[in-house]
From TrEMBL:
Keyword Transcription among record annotations: no
Record-linked InterPro entries: Kazal_dom (IPR002350), Kazal_dom_sf (IPR036058)
Claim: Ligase is one of the keywords in the record: no
Higher taxonomy: Eukaryota, Metazoa, Ecdysozoa, Arthropoda, Hexapoda
Domain Kazal-like: 15-75
Record's keyword terms, sorted: Signal
Full protein name: Kazal-like domain-containing protein
UniProt source species: Drosophila rhopaloa (Fruit fly)
Length: 82
């Protein structure tokens, strides 16, 4: 019984955590940037429309993303948007 209660509490926590990542980036406009992170020891670079979009993706993935350069990345990594 305790395991069921724990599972329900963890599920509720997961739902509330995912709601925190619902950023409204519609008003942010387009200001392309190349963001980067390190995943499994590999550096990944992805192009985002604006900083808000990068922050939302970082929140959803529970990763730390930082601006690498202004404008689009020279080449997006295969892992982008996964």
């Amino acid at each position: 019984m305790k395991l069921i209660i724990l599972a329900v509490l963890l599920a509720m926590l997961g739902i509330s955590m995912s709601q925190v990542c619902n950023y409204d980036c519609t008003q942010s406009g387009i200001d392309y940037l190349c963001g980067k992170t390190v995943r499994n020891g590999r550096e990944i670079r992805c192009t985002y429309k604006n900083p808000c979009e990068m922050d939302q993706h970082a929140c959803q993935k529970r990763e730390e993303w930082k601006k690498d350069t202004t404008g689009r990345c020279t080449r997006d990594s295969d892992e982008c948007r996964r």
